[in-house]
Amino acid sequence: MSTELLSRITSRSARVGVIGQGYVGLPLALVFREAGFPVLGLDLDPRKVEALRRGESYIKHIGPERVAAAVASGQYEATTDFGRLTECDAILICVPTPLGPHREPDNSAIHATARQIAARLRPGQLVVLESTTYPGTTDEEVLPILRQSGLDCPRDFLLAFSPEREDPGRSDFTTRTIPKVVGGINPQSTEAAASLYGSALERVVPVSSARVAESAKLLENVFRSVNIALVNELKMIFARMGIDLWEVIRAAETKPFGFMPFYPGPGLGGHCIPLDPFYLSWKAAEHGEWARFIELAGEINTRMPRYVVDRLADALNEDGKALKGSKVLVLGLAYKANIDDDRESPSYEILELLQEHGARVDYCDPFFPATRKGRKHDLSLESVRCTPEVFARYDAVLVATGHDAFKDRALYRDVPLVLDTRNLVASLPSGKGPARLVKA
Questions:
Q1: Which domains are seen in the chain, by residue range?
Q2: Given 153, 272, 364, 386, the catalytic residue
Q3: Cα dist. 92→80, 126, 160, 186, 216 in Å?
Q4: What is the pLDDT of residues 351-379, one digit of tens each?
Q5: What pLDDT was estimated at residue 153?
Q6: Which of 37, 262, 298, 378 has a beta carbon 3.0–4.6 Å from 227's, enabling a disulfide?
């Protein structure tokens, strides 16, 4: 069975099905199409599917010309019809893995997708999970569901895990150039998955098991979460001491070895770092271990929006104003600069906290004309224009995201107070305004 599949992969006649056409699944589908594979993109959202069929992109860093070219080639098709999974030789799962209300992992989308596949699974197929999850998910949860089809692995089908490593907005690395870790639940599955990804991506890194691959992804994000928490904690400490953390980081990074710079902010955002580490801490508890670094980092990073709001209240007090009743403009809804991705963005919590304290709030973000309703937030706000005249109407401007659109000192010429969480305004060339700048 694996010989026939490998032959189809080598000849690029294997049809690749990618379940989930969002920030992970869509670029992956396009890369396989651009490598010469026929690709089927599956998604539950009919609006996304219709947009893709028209050759449109709803993700800023994925240009519409790429989607249009894929559709025009006849090698890429978007659909909501999961019955067509039988057409696919390889099925890649790229679905969300959020946290529940008590920070517990929510693998329901993985389970639902696995059941959809199991209902249509046929001999000769390769299934690869890309969604970030805790070690053991692929062989302990996905495999039993697929076996409900009456088929087994590796006799009838193959199963592997390959963690997504998307970083929206990067220009130095792409889906094709980021090394791809691959681990199967058996050697045959690893071989087939490595062959598939190796036919479309520049570098594949096979590992001994799906559990190693699952763990590698978690280590990557735990590493970032812990180090971001460290600089966030140092920011609060150094602020009390009157020391500029940004200057401290610039000095420390002159050391050519043994140091890697991380930068503070108003909280964590994106679908990975705020969520993934807790998948590991939850699984660790199941094995009688307590992931103290992960939990402590989560505690520090989670409290940053409240710290920012407290700093703003203190800064307004110094100007003889109360936060209640003050007009506050928050710059940036995206979780990082120059992208249209607001998943888990701390800006939402900052806006809500400001409202709870009685402030009159607005936001400005060129990538989001209006706030989107999410799992936790529904603010129903519209972005104000990015002009000096508009900014001057507010008692304070809070920089939450470092968009290039905000890197113009003229915007702040008549602003009485700027609270800068990204060192953005502080790093601009000297000039008029704002009246007062406070780093947070």
A1: 2-208 (3.40.50.720), 218-300 (1.10.1040.10), 304-439 (3.40.50.720)
A2: 272
A3: 15, 8, 10, 17, 19
A4: 999 999 999 999 999 999 999 887 777 88
A5: 97
A6: 262
pLDDT in tens, 125-179: 999 999 999 999 999 999 999 999 999 999 999 999 999 998 887 788 999 999 9
Q: Identify any residues that bridge with 7 across adjacent strands, giving them in sequence order.
A: none
Q: What pLDDT, in 10s, does the model give residues 14-25?
A: 999 999 999 999
Q: Global pTM? A: 0.92
State the pLDDT confidence band at 1, using cuts at 50, 70 and 90.
Answer: low
Known active-site residue 386:
no
Contact (Cβ atoms closer than 8 angstroms) between residue 162 and residue 127: no
